[in-house]
Write a structure and sequence with these properties.
Jelly Rolls, HTH_AraC, 12 helices, six-stranded antiparallel beta sheet, about 325 residues, Arc Repressor Mutant, subunit A, alpha+beta, about 50% helix, globular, five-stranded mixed beta sheet
């Protein structure tokens, strides 16, 4: 297991006051633990009063900023740890394992998550300076230091939740500024690569979109590669560089996560969920489910329901 591109902790004294205000506002807006959607569609606020167990989930393109506490995200053998000094950008859909590792009732984990609109980011790139020369394909997520201009924009976005009448006009402008700050941050080129038309990273993004839409179908690597105008070998290499998965491993992970959701939220039996997501063999499904989630389907779902019920008490 390796700790990936975790920025060197550098204290920014000018960030202390806005960070305290941001933490106080998020704490007030999240009276209970959990994920809280907000009046700003792209923004949700997250609170936890204790460390969590490792939780496999599919991360969508987003900006995650911790303002109090600490969390880690594991992608394959790489671990990304982020806290109040740095933020996480997920630029493509990725199956990962998240875990809150620092939180107490007195100092809860507080985080804000902003959904990224890659199309809007692409438009923003076109208005900025020409992109840098092509470079090696990077992971579809990264950590970067939280600088004062980005923190200021995030604070202004959260303040808008107290003035709902202004959200429709001002929130899109602040969200655009936040995307701009990330694009011009220390690792913003990784996000730009996903927005450059017909670039290799964007082709990987299109392959991911295809797999998300058709995860239950038996797709071949050649069919996926042809759809994004790449050779099968080039797609395999670049897809793994961005996601740490091969395309077919990625599809399998999507299937298993969707089956888990169907069993947990819709009450489907394991065999029915397995068939729904494209598995022909229930035994194969059970083996692969256990390998990813650590327990057979029925046992893991029962444990999750018990944990959820305990948390509601």
């Amino acid at each position: 297991m390796t700790f990936a591109n975790n920025p060197t902790p550098v204290a920014h004294l000018d960030n202390h006051a806005p960070q305290r205000e941001l933490a106080a506002r998020i704490a007030r807006l999240t009276p209970q633990d959990g994920i809280h959607r907000s009046a700003i569609e792209a923004l949700c606020l997250i609170r936890a009063s204790a460390p969590s167990q490792p939780l496999p989930s599919v991360y969508q393109p987003s900006l995650c900023v911790v303002v109090q506490g600490r969390k880690q995200a594991r992608l394959g053998e790489e671990v990304f740890v982020y806290d109040a000094l740095n933020y996480l950008v997920v630029s493509v859909t990725l199956p990962m394992i998240g875990q809150i590792i620092e939180a107490t009732a007195a100092q809860p984990y507080l985080c804000l998550r902003i959904d990224l609109d890659l199309r809007a980011i692409g438009e923003l790139v076109l208005q900025a300076a020409p992109p840098p020369p092509p470079r090696a394909i990077d992971r579809g997520l990264f950590l970067a230091r939280t600088e004062a201009p980005l923190l200021d924009a995030l604070l202004r976005l959260v303040r808008l939740l107290d003035t709902p009448a202004e959200i429709g006009v001002l929130a899109p402008l602040v969200l655009r500024e936040i995307s701009y700050r990330v694009l011009h941050g220390e690792l913003g080129h990784r996000l730009r690569d996903l927005a450059v038309s017909d670039g290799n990273s964007q082709r990987v993004g299109r392959a991911i979109d295809l797999l998300k839409a058709r995860y239950a179908e038996n797709l071949s690597i050649e069919e996926i590669a042809d759809s994004v105008h790449m050779s099968a070998s080039a797609l395999h290499h670049r897809f793994k560089a961005v996601t740490s998965f091969s395309p077919l491993q990625f599809q399998k992970s999507l299937r298993l996560h969707e089956a888990r959701r169907l069993m947990l939220s819709e009450g489907l039996e394991a065999a029915v969920a397995a068939h729904r997501v494209g598995y022909e063999s229930a035994s194969q499904f059970s083996r692969e489910y256990r390998r990813l989630f650590g327990a057979p389907p029925r046992r893991e779902i029962v444990a999750l329901r018990l944990l959820s019920a305990a948390g509601a008490d």
